[in-house]
């Protein structure tokens, strides 16, 4: 999957056939609004999509593999650049100017920009992409950093706080725009993902790399298998041919899940819990002086996993070995992390052999968390169990093409069962679901879905469902009548229509050359 971000002049390369009409109108409007706003045409559009995660929830920051895919909804940034004869300035506006106010800010001479991570300001995502891209430009010794004025008009269709990773789409599109603004027409996908992951952490969330990888690497029609250890990697996975095509339906809970707002008690707390579980397990198993890894806090359950079996002399490259290792790790957690009620800071410090002060400084300062106890047992159990489910899901996707309807049905039920198991673990063990998401899943299953679960960070946001094509209407109807109309009686038809999306896997980041083009 290595290679450069594709550059195109045709929307056919970006969107599926049935989306083209709507997209042409949207893009034309964006480009003409750009001209109205800035008095000059846009030169290029940088585009990055949202994603839906099929399986592998909350394990990317523990460096385990995940299987997401891009959706059609995306972020577009129309851009024009000119030399800054004075202080370099960025002007940035949004087509939804009532929701996202127009801003302008200046850059330091070295291209740097201040980000106030405490304020929930939409342009922070642009700034974080800009900051990351600037670092990369410096690494490549590109000339002209801090010498440009950049005008931008943004148009995003990934719902903010809706669980489809609008933030990663925005940061990836921003970083790509800044690279291109500095004349970089070839942008390496892996470098873009890596910089976007680090950049997004600058706006207050310790996220893993799944969203950015899905946004950049995805290819139309396929899911993505993303790995993080020993380094970031991604490959496409074709869906098997089944008698009824695999259909994933995405349903919004409309419970706002802004992971930046709730980070200290939700997302960032889980990152700390997983890291501390890894530290405690390593310490109990006598693993000392382990090097830092690429996870947000520098040590992950995956690094514990690898070091533990390396010490035992196991190789573990084989998938079967790997799965049996994960099963063994579940037993280790069961034996060595028995406290259902969680562990206090003092208990964890004693187990690791450090002081509470040191513990807080090392793991809870960059991103503060609020908790008296840390549920190490449950979090580690979820991570190892979910890593096994990803392997099983992958096995099923790669199994021989079913030769009859019954085999097809078994395959689909197998995939659906794994989605259901993930939901159960997210709800009961990892505690990242919410009653509304549970309800959507229950309703879908009763109306015929093979499997249903939350997708993304959880605590609201979105859910994903594997549904037989013939049952899609029944599932939609169940949600409309028993969920949306019940919880949101005032919801208008347009919002209701946006609530449910039958999503085909979409394409990843793209640079679109506008210059010289009369029409789209
Ligand atoms: C968010 C993060 C991802 C991932 C998911 C949970 O979307 O940004 O990195 O951790 O939550 O799987």
From TrEMBL:
InterPro entries for this protein: Galactokinase (IPR000705), Galactokinase_CS (IPR019741), GalKase_N (IPR019539), GHMP_kinase_C_dom (IPR013750), GHMP_kinase_C_sf (IPR036554), GHMP_kinase_N_dom (IPR006204), GHMP_knse_ATP-bd_CS (IPR006203), Mevalonate/galactokinase (IPR006206)
GO biological process, one term: sterol biosynthetic process
Matches recorded under Pfam families: GalKase_gal_bdg, GHMP_kinases_C, GHMP_kinases_N
GO CC, one annotated term: cytosol
Residues covered by the Galactokinase N-terminal domain: 33-80
Catalytic reactions of this protein: alpha-D-galactose + ATP = alpha-D-galactose 1-phosphate + ADP + H(+)
Keywords assigned: ATP-binding, Carbohydrate metabolism, Galactose metabolism, Kinase, Lipid biosynthesis, Lipid metabolism, Nucleotide-binding, Steroid biosynthesis, Steroid metabolism, Sterol biosynthesis, Sterol metabolism, Transferase
Enzyme class: transferase
Pathway of action: Carbohydrate metabolism; galactose metabolism
Residue ranges occupied by any GHMP kinase N-terminal domain in the UniProt entry: 133-218
Any GO molecular function: galactokinase activity
Domain GHMP kinase C-terminal per the UniProt entry, residue ranges: 413-484
E.C. no: 2.7.1.6
Protein family according to the UniProt entry: Belongs to the GHMP kinase family. GalK subfamily.
NCBIfam families: gal_kin
Listed PANTHER family: GALACTOKINASE-RELATED, MEVALONATE KINASE/GALACTOKINASE
Name of the protein in question: Galactokinase
């Amino acid at each position: 999957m290595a290679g450069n971000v594709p550059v195109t002049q045709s929307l056919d390369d970006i969107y599926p056939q049935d989306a083209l009409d709507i997209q042409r109108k949207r893009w034309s409007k964006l480009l003409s609004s750009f001209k109205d706003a800035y008095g000059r045409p846009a030169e290029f559009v940088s585009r990055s999509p949202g994603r839906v995660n099929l399986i592998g929830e909350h394990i990317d920051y523990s460096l385990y593999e995940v299987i997401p895919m891009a959706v059609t909804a995306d972020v577009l940034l129309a851009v024009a650049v000119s030399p800054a004869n004075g202080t370099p300035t960025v002007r940035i506006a949004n087509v939804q100017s009532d929701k996202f106010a127009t801003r302008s800010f200046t850059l330091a001479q070295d291209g740097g920009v201040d980000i106030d991570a405490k304020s929930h300001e939409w342009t922070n995502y642009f700034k974080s992409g800009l900051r990351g891209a600037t670092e990369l430009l410096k690494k490549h010794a590109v000339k002209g950093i801090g010498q440009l004025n950049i005008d931008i008009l943004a148009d995003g269709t990934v719902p903010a706080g809706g669980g489809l990773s609008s933030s990663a789409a925005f940061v990836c599109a921003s970083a790509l725009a800044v690279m291109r603004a500095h004349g970089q027409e070839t942008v390496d996908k892996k470098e873009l993902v890596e910089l976007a992951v680090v950049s997004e952490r600058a706006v207050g969330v310790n996220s893993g790399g799944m969203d950015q990888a899905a946004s950049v690497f995805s290819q139309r029609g396929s899911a993505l298998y993303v790995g993080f250890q020993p380094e970031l990697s991604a490959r496409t996975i074709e869906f098997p041919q089944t008698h009824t095509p695999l259909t994933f339906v995405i349903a919004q809970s409309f419970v706002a899940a802004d992971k930046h707002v709730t980070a200290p008690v939700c997302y960032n707390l889980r990152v700390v819990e997983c890291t501390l579980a890894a530290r405690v397990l390593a310490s109990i198993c006598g693993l000392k002086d382990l090097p830092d890894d690429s996870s947000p806090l520098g040590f992950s359950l995956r690094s514990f996993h690898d070091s533990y079996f390396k010490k035992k002399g196991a190789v573990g490259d084989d998938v079967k070995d790997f799965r049996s290792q994960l099963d063994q790790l579940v037993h280790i957690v069961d034996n060595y992390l028995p406290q259902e009620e969680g562990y206090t800071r003092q208990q964890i410090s004693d187990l690791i052999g450090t002081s509470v002060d040191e513990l807080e400084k090392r793991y809870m300062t960059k991103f503060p968390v609020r908790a008296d106890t840390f549920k190490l047992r449950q979090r580690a159990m979820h991570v190892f169990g979910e890593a096994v489910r990803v392997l099983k899901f992958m096995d099923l996707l790669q199994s021989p093409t079913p030769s009859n309807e019954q085999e097809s049905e078994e395959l689909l039920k197998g995939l659906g069962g794994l989605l259901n198991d993930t939901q159960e673990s997210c709800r009961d063990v990892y505690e990242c679901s919410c009653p509304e998401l549970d309800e959507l899943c229950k309703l879908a299953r009763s109306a015929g879905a093979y499997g249903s679960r939350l997708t993304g960070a959880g605590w609201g946001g979105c859910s994903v469902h594997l549904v037989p094509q013939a049952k899609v209407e029944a599932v939609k109807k169940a949600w409309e009548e028993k969920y949306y109309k019940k919880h949101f009686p005032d919801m208008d038809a347009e919002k209701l229509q946006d609530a449910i999306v039958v999503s085909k896997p979409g394409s990843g980041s793209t640079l679109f050359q506008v210059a010289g083009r009369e029409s789209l």
